[in-house]
Amino acid sequence: MKRCTSCGQIIAQSITTCPACGSLLVEGMRFIDEYRIINIIHEGRSSLVCKAVKENGVKPVTIRLFTDQSGVNEDIALRLKTEITKLAKLPPDLFVQHYAIKKSDTGHWYRISEWVEADNWGNIFVSGILKDQRQMVTLFSNIASALETLHAHDHFMPYLILDDILIPKDNTRNLAVKINYKLSRFLNPRATHHGPMLKKLLTCHPDMVNERAIDSRTEIWSLGKLFIELMTADLNLVKFSSRVGKIKGLDPDLRILIRVMLSDDPDQRPQTMATVVSSLYRILDQLPHKSVFPLPPHPKPRLKMRNWFRRMVLLLLLILAGILAVNTGSRIFMETRQDNKEIVFSDFIETYTDSIGFLMVEYWLTDSTKVVYKNKVEGTAFLMDKQGYILTNRHVACPWLEDPALFQLYNQYKQVGTTLEFNHRMFLWFEGEKAFNRLPDLKRSLELSDAYYLDSAFRSDGKNNLRIVGVPRASEKTGERINSPFKHDFAVLKIDNIPKNLIPLPLEPDLNAAQIKRLSPVIILGFPFGHRTQDDHINVSITRGHVRRSTKEIIQVDSSIYKGNSGGPAVNAKGHVIGIASGVVTDQSASQTPMNMPLSDFGLILPISRPASFVKDLKAGHNKWDGKLDFSLDIKLTQVVD
Length: 642
Hints:
Number of helices: 16
Distance between the termini: 94 Å
Mean pLDDT: 81
Number of strands: 23
Structural class: alpha+beta
Shape: elongated
Strand order of the largest sheet: 15-14-11-12-13-17-16
Oligomer: single chain
Largest sheet: 7 strands, antiparallel
Low-confidence stretches: 291-306
């Protein structure tokens, strides 16, 4: 890059006549020390990149010459030299090799790197190589696998852009890649002049815009953005996530993966590059094979008339066999595709299982001397955000509110002038925690500490302050209780000191339950039958089903919801919570002694919209009832009146 002395126009090195004023210009650089410049690849404000070769040499190299505006000095050059030593450990088949940092005779610093004979992306886009979806996913897999290797060497690329990816010309058909990785993206972290691609990334990446801590999940978002740019050949996109849904013919599993990668919330993205790689390989396995480079057609042999009848019969037999093979192959392919789709979805669900909690609530009534009533309930709860808010059912968190035996006993004691005191305590264990003592002699013990391992639990009377922060009051209108029995069946809990491995389950934003399509897939997580189906450590059960029908107040699913499942999340195909498992339909058995029996495959889900709005109010500072009973209130009111 040079400047015209007559008019001041900035002009590329190779231009000898100023296009602005017509003045003759001095010849541009031909050498950098002993390196002869073959071709100038890029000229920017802070550097010039060229292909060069040593005098009397054969093997070309890449030279990046840093300009005065780059600010590269002795200190920065020393840092770059140190980085080159570290980068030498990266595998040369996947990463561009950097050789040395030197200072030229003119006093400018430059970096010598491997020359990679690669196609530019414009040529690759117009070549049509990436029109085949299988080829596209192959490229995605190669890029992600290289980045996974980078992670194995304790490096990552949060500022990943398309210019960092090179496809060597001799490997174009295989779409093998080389990544031009520099340990530090910026020569000067405070610099404000960047290339178009990097400048665009810095202004649209949610982690950078919101000034979040940068980690490997930042890179996963950048990679998702890069995938969209490759699929659309549109490098000027701004709204990446919304564009995913508009790409016609895109494999549904690939669509889900990219949407999750582009989530604004880092906790909702795949947590490792290994997860992205495994998902891409599964998607690749289910895509049909199609040759991108078709062979030239062969001339068809001419049929002789005397063999016409025999060959026609043979042709008809081949057609029939082909039809049978296609039908069989299609069925097998669709089954395999469905299985692979479920595996991909299962991978994302597994990401959130650590945040599913086993909730146990014990409550009791005492008179002045002894416990006169005690009961306990088990159920499911799930973490919904990083602030420690947890959702479950009201009948799980506050079972006493729906316990007629408790209120009957209270009224009996009240009639004889005895006031009872209500107490409760709650315990919560997350996936993988030890929660149960399985000693045979202790099975019938009434002491919680004999049946449950309490030391590892979040608890209301100790560790990490498990507490009820909000419970809706049930409607007093008989019609509402009959028509919408689950309308208020949710409770909000809260804990402190959230374990780092817990990833909150994302809620479906702006859910309209009445518009959920029938047969939409749904997965329910929880603990059917409570402790009876658990070993000594918490192990979440996953149940798959479909939506039967839905209304504003309830979602019916063909999935069994048993005692212990209550309070668990119901998750849709996007990995978002659409509701809380709340109950199961029952029917009376046809016997001499009729009994209410739960119907299998007929579960009821409370839509998440009302609980989500309730939590929003809590966060805004609105006070909510905590569901606790205070039977001494009548005495207190009497004392106040007296």
